[in-house]
Design brief:
The protein has about 50 residues and is mostly helical. About 85% of the residues lie in helices and about 0% in strands. The longest helix is centred in the C-terminal third of the chain and has 29 residues.
Amino acid sequence: MEKAMHAAHGVCYEEYCSNHDVRMAVEREREKDYLKSQRILSDIERKAHS
């Protein structure tokens, strides 16, 4: 998990756990990525049904 965290967000897990500001920035980025993936999925599903 440590390597994935660093690769995806540029911070180590220890820093993520110990620094609230870093944790909030990572979680905002994750939320943004999740919403983007949901929009992409919705577009694909809509195109498949038209």
